[in-house]
Structure formats: structure tokens, C-alpha cells
């Protein structure tokens, strides 16, 4: 908020208006005046102010009615109301209507200034929050979510919108795309953040035990049930239950889950009584549940209960612009406090990888590179990408295909391969010679012979050009 700070003074009493305006201007506060609610709205239409200071009792619309209109049109503008001593009921009504504070007439100069100072601070805080929200919109992270692509920005916006909602969410995407990270961000960005976030992988637990895990059981319900146990639904009460890999849940248990979602109560295994639960359900799967429905492996009615708010996370190969920010985040996570970074060439190499394992595979590569290298800067040679030899599998196929398409000689193909190895080793001829299985002197001699061959070809090309020029003349 820029200086000087500004106040709009609204009072039908001209003497009071002038006195307050003079007092504020003496404090370096920019002050404007209006004699009625209608004039005040006209003034606000001309230019904004930091705080509105208005009398409650005025001809025409009252200060409380003005407050209501300001709250509707300019909700970030604090309104301080002035009321005559003894009209405390009006002041209480004003506070209920959303006034920032009130002062009673006749007021003490210092008391008014202290109240206005707090109002200025509130306005500054609101503006800072707006600035931070805009910054979040323009940056590559939201909570634990990271990404710079349009797809991830859309997910950031959706998460903010649904965080305080209790509707069920179904997150879909390939393994490793970060479905649980999205679920956690939804939970910890909303009103349930102080309550439990309880995750469970529906694949990791046999179906017979999964029912007991979810709904609980009473003592003696089955062999081994020596004590009564609360299920995850009860443990997540007031919070969020994250059902990962919901597509792998058996049909029998799907029916029982559907009943819980409909009735909002669970019945522990072996019990005759039900327990009310207040739990938000977020489910995730890497399967296409519509295909599973058609195949008879997933209940259509459960799908509609879960798919109230769908979120699809695209695979990393479809959003290569997210690779650099994810990679840098993983470097920070696994650097153990040491200053580490990725070179520009390393980042470019990471962007070219298909990442079939998505962000999980990328993190694994970064963690391994940091563990195996002592260098501050991680280069392309330090990145143990899947299937790597001197070049990645895709690079090798590309090299051979390029050679066939251009009808290269064996010597030309050999030169091209040596170039690729030197690029891989960042020009380190000792390392390159070791990869090629030759000594360093042989590598130097090959380079000199190639240089001579290039010069001969250049000379020959020049002779041909001269011959062509003479023939054309």
C-alpha cells in the first residue's frame, strides 16, 4: 500500500467532517469527505481509499446501509463507524454487519488514530494476501504441487477452489504422477487441515483384511481379532481418507464402501451397531474406471459417488516444461544441505527423457546422481538415465537411423559416434577413450586424421566448384 494512506470521511455534520479531515491531514493521512452515503459511493467510484470512516445516523441511507454496499462492492476496504455515546446497540449491529470497528462520539483523538492504524494494517494485510495469491498464480508451485505447465496451473486453480468442499474427489493418472501429493495438497489447503489425513493403498492389503482396516472390527469378530479396533474411517473423522488404487478393490468391498458413502456411517466387522463418520473421500487410480465398469470389475454406482470432482494428472512426457522445476525441487530435497545444482546441459538431457515412471522415476534419477557424484554441479554425464550406456537407447537408435538415412560410410558413422561420446563426456578425452576402448593417443590421432580428411574434402569441393564455374561460362 502506497503512502500517504487515505480515508474517506462520511458525515452529514459539516463541522464534524471538517474537524476529522483536519485531524487526519495533520497526521499525514490523505482525507476526503462526503456528506451522505450516496455521495460516498460516488467518491469511491472516482478513486479507492484505504479506510472508510462513516457516521451511522445520517439522512437517507444510514452508515450501516453504506457498510453493506461497500462490503458487497469493495470487500477488502475496512469500514469504521462512528456512533453517538449511548447508541451501543447500533455499534453491535454494525459489527455483526461486518464493520471493522466503531468509535463513539465524542471520541478521543488518540483512540480514533489507533483504530484507524489497525484498519490500515488490515488493509495492508488484505493487499499482501492478494499479492501472494497472484504470485502463486505466476509461480511453479502450490503447496507440495510443482509444475509450470498449463495443465498443472489448471490443477493448482482447481485445488484452491475445492479445498474447503467436502465432495468426493477422484484423481486419475499414471503411476508416479503424484496423485497422493495432489490429495495431500487438497486436504492441507482446506478447512480439514487440522484433522487427520489417512492414506491407504487398496492394492497392498488383501481384501479380507482391507474391510477390517477400513471399517474396524470388534473383539472376536474373526480369528486373531483379540481386541476391538477402530477402522480408518473412524481414525480419519473430521479429516480426509485417501483411497489409493481404488480400481484394485474387489467388487464385494466396493458395495460396502458405497453404503458408507451413502449413509455416512460405518459398521465394524462383527458389530451390530453403526458409527456416524464425517470423512471426506479422495480416491485415486491409474486404471480407466470406465473400462473397468464395462468389463464388470468396478461398480458404476460407486464410480459416480467417487467421481464428483475429477482430477486428471497428465504424464510427465506430455508436460516437459515441468521437468526442470521438478528436477530442481528434487535436488533441493536430496542435497542434504549442500549447495548442489544441475547444469543447463543436464536439464536439457532430462527434458528429452520419456519418463515412463513419471515424477517418481525422475526423483530416483536425481537422488542417485547426487549420491554418486561429489561435484557441486551435476552434468549430463552424472545422470544415470534408464538404459544408459555412453548414450541413451533412444539416442543410439537415432544415431543408426540417421546413418542409414544419409547413407553414411563406416568411417563417417565412427566419427559421429565419437562425437556423441565426446559430447557425453563434456570433452573429457580420457573418459571418452575409456568408453571407446582405445587409448587417448589413438583418439587424438583419429581426430587429426579426420581434420585432414575434412580439409581434403573441402579442397576437392572447391575444385569441383571451379570446374562447374568454368563449364557454365
CATH class of the largest domain: Alpha Beta
Reported by name, the CATH topology of the largest domain is Rossmann fold
Strand content is: 5-15%
How far do the termini sit from each other? 78 Å
Overall SS class: alpha/beta
Number of domains: 4
Report Rg: 35 Å
Task: Note the overall shape.
Answer: flat
| Total count of strands | 18
Count of helical regions: 19
The CATH homologous superfamily of the largest domain: P-loop containing nucleotide triphosphate hydrolases
Tell me, rounded to a whole number, the average pLDDT.
Answer: 83
> Sheet with the most strands?
5 strands, parallel
CATH architecture of the largest domain: 3-Layer(aba) Sandwich
Helix content: 40-55%
Give the strand order of the largest sheet, numbering strands 1, 2, ... along the chain: 2-1-3-4-5
Uncertain spans: 389-397, 460-473
Verbal overview:
By secondary structure, the chain is an alpha/beta fold. Helix content is 51%, strand content 14%. The protein has helices at 14-26, 37-46, 63-73, 88-96, 109-138, 150-162, 179-188, 207-215, 232-235, 251-263, 289-294, 300-306, 323-334, 344-351, 358-372, 393-405, 410-424, 429-436, 440-472; strands at residues 6-10, 30-34, 51-55, 79-84, 101-105, 141-142, 145-146, 169-172, 197-201, 216-217, 229-230, 240-244, 265-266, 275-276, 280-285, 309-312, 341-342, 377-378. It has a 5-stranded parallel beta sheet with strand order 2-1-3-4-5, sandwiched between helices. A 5-stranded parallel beta sheet has the order 9-12-15-8-16. Strands 6-7 form a two-stranded antiparallel sheet. Helix 3 (63-73) links the parallel strand 3 and strand 4. The radius of gyration is 35 Å and the shape is flat.
Amino acid at each position: 500500500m502506497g503512502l500517504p494512506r487515505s480515508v474517506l470521511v462520511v458525515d452529514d455534520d459539516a463541522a464534524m467532517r471538517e474537524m476529522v479531515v483536519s485531524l487526519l491531514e495533520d497526521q499525514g493521512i490523505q482525507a476526503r469527505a462526503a456528506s451522505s452515503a450516496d455521495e460516498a459511493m460516488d467518491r469511491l467510484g472516482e478513486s479507492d481509499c484505504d479506510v472508510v470512516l462513516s457516521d451511522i445516523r445520517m439522512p437517507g441511507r444510514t452508515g450501516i446501509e453504506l457498510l453493506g454496499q461497500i462490503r458487497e462492492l469493495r470487500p477488502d476496504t475496512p469500514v469504521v463507524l462512528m456512533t453517538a455515546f449511548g447508541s451501543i446497540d447500533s455499534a453491535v449491529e454494525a459489527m455483526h454487519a461486518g464493520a471493522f470497528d466503531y468509535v463513539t462520539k465524542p471520541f478521543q483523538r488518540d483512540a480514533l488514530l489507533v483504530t484507524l492504524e489497525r484498519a490500515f494494517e488490515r488493509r495492508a494485510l488484505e493487499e499482501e494476501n492478494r499479492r501472494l495469491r497472484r504470485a502463486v498464480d505466476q509461480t511453479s508451485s502450490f503447496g507440495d504441487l510443482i509444475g509450470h505447465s498449463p495443465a498443472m496451473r489448471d490443477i493448482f486453480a482447481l485445488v484452491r477452489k475445492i479445498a474447503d468442499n467436502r465432495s468426493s474427489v477422484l484423481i486419475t493418472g499414471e503411476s508416479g504422477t503424484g496423485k497422493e501429493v495432489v490429495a495431500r495438497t487438497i486436504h492441507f489447503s482446506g478447512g480439514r487441515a487440522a484433522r487427520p489425513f489417512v492414506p491407504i493403498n487398496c492394492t497392498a492389503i488383501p481384501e479380507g483384511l482391507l474391510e477390517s482396516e477400513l471399517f474396524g472390527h470388534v473383539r472376536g469378530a474373526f480369528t486373531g481379532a483379540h481386541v476391538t479396533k477402530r477402522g480408518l474411517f473412524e481414525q480419519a473423522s473430521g479429516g480426509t481418507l485417501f483411497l489409493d488404487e481404488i480400481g484394485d478393490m474387489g467388487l464385494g468391498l466396493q458395495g460396502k464402501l458405497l453404503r458408507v458413502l451413502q449413509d455416512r456411517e460405518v459398521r465394524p466387522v462383527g458389530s451390530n451397531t453403526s458409527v456416524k463418520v464425517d470423512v471426506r473421500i479422495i480416491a485415486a487410480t491409474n486404471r480407466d474406471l470406465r473400462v473397468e465398469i464395462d468389463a464388470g470389475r468396478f461398480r458404476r454406482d460407486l464410480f459416480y459417488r467417487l467421481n464428483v470432482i475429477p482430477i486428471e494428472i497428465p504424464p510427465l512426457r506430455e508436460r516437459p516444461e515441468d521437468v526442470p522445476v521438478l528436477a530442481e525441487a528434487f535436488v533441493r530435497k536430496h542435497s542434504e544441505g549442500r549447495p548442489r545444482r544441475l547444469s543447463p546441459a543436464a536439464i536439457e538431457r532430462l527434458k528429452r527423457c520419456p519418463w515412463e515412471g513419471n515424477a517418481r522415476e525422475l526423483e530416483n534419477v536425481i537422488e542417485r546422481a547426487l549420491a554418486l557424484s561429489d561435484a557441486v554441479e551435476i552434468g549430463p554425464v552424472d545422470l544415470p538415465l534408464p538404459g544408459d550406456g555412453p548414450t541413451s537407447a533412444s539416442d543410439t537408435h537415432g544415431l543408426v537411423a540417421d546413418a542409414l538415412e544419409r547413407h553414411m560410410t563406416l568411417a563417417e558413422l565412427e566419427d559421429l559416434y565419437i562425437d556423441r561420446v565426446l559430447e557425453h563426456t563434456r570433452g573429457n578425452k580420457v573418459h571418452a577413450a575409456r568408453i571407446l576402448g582405445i587409448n587417448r593417443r589413438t583418439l587424438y590421432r583419429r581426430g587429426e586424421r579426420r581434420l585432414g580428411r575434412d580439409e581434403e574434402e573441402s579442397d576437392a569441393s572447391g575444385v569441383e566448384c571451379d570446374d562447374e564455374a568454368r563449364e557454365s561460362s
